[in-house]
Write a structure and sequence with these properties.
Blueprint lengths: L4 E4 L11 E5 L2 E5 L8 H4 L15 E3 L5 H4 L2 H6 L5 E5 H28 L13 H8 L2 E4 L4 E5 L2 E7 L7 E6 L4 E4 L22 E5 L15 H12 L3 E5 L5 H15 L7 E3 L2 H11 L13 H5 L4 E3 L3 H6 L7 E5 L9 H8 L6 E4 L8 H6 L4 E4 L2 E4 L3 E4 L9 H9 L7 E5 L3 H15 L3 E3 L5 E3 L9
Parallel strand pairs: 3-4, 4-5, 5-6, 10-11, 11-20, 12-15, 12-16, 13-14, 13-15, 16-19, 20-21
Antiparallel strand pairs: 1-2, 1-22, 2-3, 7-8, 8-9, 9-10, 17-18
Helix pairs in contact: 4-5, 4-8, 13-14
Length: about 475
């Protein structure tokens, strides 16, 4: 019988595009099907033929609903995948929102590129369409936390709460011969909205993310003071504040923070616009009684999602009207790394005006517009044109709900067994290398930074998994 293997088809050498292929007793299980974002080299791989015939993949297992973990699914289905996609209830609900929005934006962007001729593709096409998403959703199968799910032929999966976004999980895939634990994206030890992460059962092989593997999150005595100061200063000079925020989870956390600051008098109360259909749909999921068990028990979700100065902009007409706003206002819009969506139109409108401020609230991957702004770009290319950057750019590192380096090491240390090997993924090279070093220095464990396309054997040297 051929040994069990793991192939790294994404999130190796980069922080996006998570795809890990397990071959177990002849069955092929793909853990996550994420889209590449950021640098052009990686984005182009979304269009490349998948390294394995999608028709030969038996199942897809999802850790959570962010684009870099589920956004490639419709393309996989379009190319011939016919199996089941397994996910928690929260992930299934959010993945539908994320994928529908992605298809809509891709179709619209393709039409815009074709109309104005700035795409090198002839014709300009979307990676997938809304029809592809509808077909993909028929493959979703919901699972519960902390329950073994039989995928057939002796393959079992178990999802454990990861505390990163609603529905997020670490996933343990096992047979009678071996087991591999995939961390997914791990949440901080003190998520402001969600219940804390749980520790999953250990395994002889562990695949761990390293997004913040080379840094610690700040924990100041007065939280988010730079964020508050930027809002106060912008309002004082009559400008507008733009907050690019991930539609799933980050918008909720930003709204909670703004609500608390208004209540405490740290910032003035000004009109606040949530301009992202995907974020508005995600907010409804967070408010749903079905998912309340995922939230912190000490949290009243209506206190921050029902702020009286919050205005929703669900349609294109109301979105366009925001460009006519005069006087102070705060606009929250996706995407969080300014890779697409309505935030691009706000950037085009607001960046040239020095009265305005853009506050970055999350990780900005290499090659994204958000990273360019973070690094001090003086101009930004938007819809085929270069726009001058005169607005103030502020980075608030306190909003991240990714585990920092210490959180990651603590999560590994808390596992109930020492793994034979830890594979470090989902990080830029410096971050992955730093976590690799800490695993060796602090835990004394064997680890390796995964390389794209690398195949490793994932069977314990000493026999059966225990």
């Amino acid at each position: 019988m051929a040994p069990a293997t793991l192939t790294f088809l994404g999130a190796a050498g980069t922080v996006t595009g998570s795809k890990f292929l397990l071959t177990l007793d002849g069955r092929r299980i793909l853990v996550d099907a994420g889209m590449y974002q950021g640098e052009k080299h990686w984005r182009s791989m979304n269009w490349a033929p998948f390294p394995v015939d999608p028709a030969d993949i038996d199942d897809v297992v999802l850790t959570h609903a962010h684009m870099d973990h589920c956004g490639y699914l419709p393309r996989l289905v379009k190319e011939g995948f016919t199996g089941d996609v397994w996910a928690t209830e929260g992930t299934a609900a959010l993945a539908e929102i994320v994928l529908r929005d992605a298809a809509y934006l891709q179709e619209r962007d393709a039409e815009h590129a074709a109309r104005y001729g700035y795409s090198k593709h002839r014709p300009a096409l979307p990676l997938y369409t809304e029809d592809d998403v509808r077909e993909t959703l028929t493959h979703l199968r919901q699972v519960a936390y902390d329950t073994d799910v039989d995928l057939g032929h002796g393959v079992r999966c178990r999802w454990t709460r990861a505390g990163h976004i609603l529905g997020s999980a670490s996933v343990r895939v096992s047979t009678d011969r071996t087991a591999v634990l995939f961390s997914g994206d791990i949440g901080r030890h003190d998520h402001p909205v969600l219940r804390a992460r749980d520790i999953p059962p250990g395994a002889p092989f562990v695949v761990v993310e390293s997004t913040y593997g080379d840094r610690e999150h700040p924990e100041p005595d007065r939280p988010h003071e730079e964020f508050a100061a930027a809002i106060r200063d912008t309002v004082a000079r009559g400008g507008k504040v733009l907050i690019p925020a991930f539609a799933v989870d980050r918008t909720e956390v930003v709204l909670k923070t703004i609500g608390e600051m208004q209540q405490d008098g740290r910032i003035p109360t000004v009109p606040l616009y949530v301009n992202s259909p995907m974020a508005l749909n995600a907010l409804r999921v967070y408010r749903s009684p079905v998912h309340r068990a995922e939230l912190r028990p000490d949290l009243d979700v209506e206190e921050f999602l029902g702020l009286p100065n919050v205005h929703e902009t669900p349609d294109a007409d109301s979105s366009r009207e925001l460009s006519e706003l005069r006087g102070p206002a705060i606009i929250i819009s996706s995407s969080g790394m300014a890779t697409g969506g309505r935030v691009l139109h706000h950037l085009e409108d607001m960046l040239p005006d020095p009265r305005n401020t853009v506050i970055l609230t999350g990780y900005q991957a290499t090659g994204t517009r958000g990273r360019s702004l973070e690094e001090g770009a003086r101009e930004l290319k938007l819809h085929g044109r270069y726009i001058p950057v005169r607005a103030q750019i502020v980075r608030d590192a306190e909003f991240s709900v990714h585990a920092d380096a210490t959180d990651l090491v603590d999560w590994l240390r808390d596992l109930d067994r020492v793994p034979e090997t830890v594979f470090v993924v989902h990080g830029e090279p410096d971050a992955a290398a730093a976590l690799h070093g800490r695993i060796a220095d602090e835990l004394g464990w064997t680890s390796a930074v995964a390389r794209y396309g690398e195949v490793v054997i994932v069977e314990p040297r000493t026999g059966r998994d225990r």
